[in-house]
């Protein structure tokens, strides 16, 4: 069954993707014979893949095939015949295709084809002599320009790639393989035992596929991973539910912490156990989608702090590994991802701006690694300052122990019982001279309001400036 029959509204096309179509467009109208010959080969390959091409591509193939014949390769009379047939076929496709007989002139006017070209076709079809070689070539040149205006340029603004979702059968196979891999991988990490009957059923599934019956849990997990990778490679796009199943508190975000000299981190054994699966997603260009989903966990106020911490640490692990991978650095002690053609530079440049919108106390665990991955010194310094200010758990307003408040002033008035009561709440070892010192240079208070305290100078508190 063809793709268009299985997926309503979609049409199977001969080009690999929209970029290949645009590449052909650029070659056709490059005005260089060598590039146009390359375009002709590409159009002929499309014709082999799909014999019935869309009218715009078919018309371009007809016209270009005729125009690229070297004039010195044959007598001018033979070349004129080829031009005449090409012109007739092009006009029939462009103005007479599926129309009733006798409506060609009306259709040609509707499609902005000039009258002289219609007359040229009439002379080819009904005249006793062919029009001149120059007239025929001028007609084909006009046709190529007309195709650019009517087909290639409008389509270049509309054409896009559609990724067909996997069939339900393939989804079921992927789901069962993925769930089994999760179970075995987690059991190996947590040193848990799986049900013997469940192990036997998975081993039977592996035997059916590979004609081998593994016994050890690690060996079973390896076979399951191969099945998952095979299923992923069969689809045009990794299903979104795949990533949702992975990024949960019972799988990738299950709490596995260890203390390091730099603070908390994901337990090394747990981190390394997921490296091969994450590499498989990286091979398919899905690692940025995983980062986005992890960040959504970090930004979700309804999710527990433990899960948010795991998500933030995973973002950092992936980002640091990607940077080392792209720079061909040693991966020892890091999440050991396998190389891929995907770098996600543009995606992460936009993502770091998005991350600023949802700053919280967990952002600091991965923001530096994102900023290091996408180099922009000026912007990165500003973002680091904002992140530090926003994620400071002590708050922006903290009072140091050596800062004296007005109630601590030793008023030079007569002592009273109230004063003695106030003294009992003062800190010990008060040195009167340390409270206030006469300021000779008042430039530090320039443009500041009256009544500021000694520690509130403009350099430390620019928001005081008026």
Helix count, DSSP H or I runs of 4 or more residues: 20
Which structural class fits the helix and strand makeup? mainly alpha
| Widest sheet: strand ordering | 1-2
Q: Could you tell me how far the N terminus lies from the C terminus, measured between alpha carbons in angstroms?
A: 75 Å
* Alpha carbon gyration radius: 37 Å
**What is the element string, with H for helices and E for strands?**
HHHHHHHHHHHHEEHHHHHHHH
Average pLDDT level: 80
Counting DSSP E segments of at least 2 residues, the number of strands comes to: 2
Biggest sheet, open or closed, and with what strands and sense?
A: 2 strands, antiparallel
Principal-axis shape: flat
**Proportion of β residues?**
under 5%
Percent helix, as a range, is: 55-70%
Pfam family, one: Las1
InterPro entries: Las1 (IPR007174)
Organism: Dendroctonus ponderosae
Protein name: Ribosomal biogenesis protein LAS1L
Task: Annotate the secondary structure layout.
Elements: H1 3-6, H2 18-28, H3 33-49, H4 55-67, H5 76-95, H6 104-110, H7 115-126, H8 133-158, H9 168-190, H10 196-210, H11 217-234, H12 240-246, E1 257-260, E2 263-266, H13 268-273, H14 275-283, H15 287-299, H16 305-326, H17 345-357, H18 367-373, H19 377-390, H20 417-423
Antiparallel strand pairs: 1-2
GO biological process, one term: maturation of LSU-rRNA
Organism: Dendroctonus ponderosae (Mountain pine beetle)
InterPro entries: Las1
């Amino acid at each position: 069954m063809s793709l268009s029959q299985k997926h309503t509204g979609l049409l199977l096309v001969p080009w690999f993707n929209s970029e290949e179509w645009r590449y052909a467009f650029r070659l056709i109208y490059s005005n260089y014979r060598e590039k146009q010959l390359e375009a002709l080969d590409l159009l002929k390959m499309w014709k082999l893949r799909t014999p019935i091409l869309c009218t715009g591509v078919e018309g371009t193939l007809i016209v270009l095939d005729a125009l690229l014949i070297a004039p010195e390769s044959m007598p001018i009379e033979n070349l004129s015949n080829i031009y005449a047939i090409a012109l007739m076929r092009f006009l029939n496709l462009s103005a007479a295709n599926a129309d009733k007989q006798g409506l060609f002139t009306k259709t040609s006017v509707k499609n902005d084809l000039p009258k002289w070209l219609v007359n040229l076709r009439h002379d080819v079809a009904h005249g006793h002599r062919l029009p001149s070689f120059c007239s025929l070539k001028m007609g084909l040149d006009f046709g190529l320009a007309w195709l650019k205006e009517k087909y290639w340029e409008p389509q270049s603004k509309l054409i896009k790639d559609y990724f067909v979702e996997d069939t339900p059968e393939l989804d079921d196979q992927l789901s069962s393989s993925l769930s089994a891999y999760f179970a075995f991988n987690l059991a190996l990490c947590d040193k848990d035992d799986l049900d013997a009957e469940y192990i036997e059923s998975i081993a039977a599934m592996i035997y059916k596929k590979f004609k081998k019956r593994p016994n050890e849990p690690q060996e079973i997990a390896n076979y399951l991973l191969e099945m998952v990778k095979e299923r992923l490679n069969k689809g045009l796009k990794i299903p979104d539910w795949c990533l949702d199943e992975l990024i949960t508190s019972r799988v990738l975000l299950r709490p596995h912490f260890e203390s390091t000299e730099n603070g908390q981190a994901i337990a090394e054994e747990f981190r390394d156990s997921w490296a091969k699966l994450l590499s498989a997603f990286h091979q398919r260009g899905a690692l940025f989608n995983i980062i986005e989903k992890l960040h959504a966990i970090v930004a979700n106020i309804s999710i527990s702090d433990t899960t948010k911490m795991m998500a933030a640490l995973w973002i950092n692990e992936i980002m640091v590994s990607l940077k080392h991978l792209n720079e061909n650095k040693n991966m020892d002690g890091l999440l050991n991802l396998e190389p891929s053609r995907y770098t996600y530079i543009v995606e992460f440049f936009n993502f770091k701006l998005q991350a600023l919108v949802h700053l919280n106390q967990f952002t600091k665990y991965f923001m530096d690694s994102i900023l290091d991955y996408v180099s922009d010194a000026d912007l990165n310094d500003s973002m680091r300052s904002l992140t530090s200010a926003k994620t400071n758990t002590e708050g922006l307003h903290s009072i140091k122990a050596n800062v004296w408040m007005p109630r601590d002033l030793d008023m030079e008035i007569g002592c009273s019982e109230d004063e003695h009561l106030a003294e009992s709440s003062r800190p010990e070892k008060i040195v009167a001279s340390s409270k206030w010192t006469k300021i000779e240079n008042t430039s530090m208070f320039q443009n500041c309001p009256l009544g500021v305290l000694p520690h509130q100078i403009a350099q430390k508190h620019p928001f005081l400036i008026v």
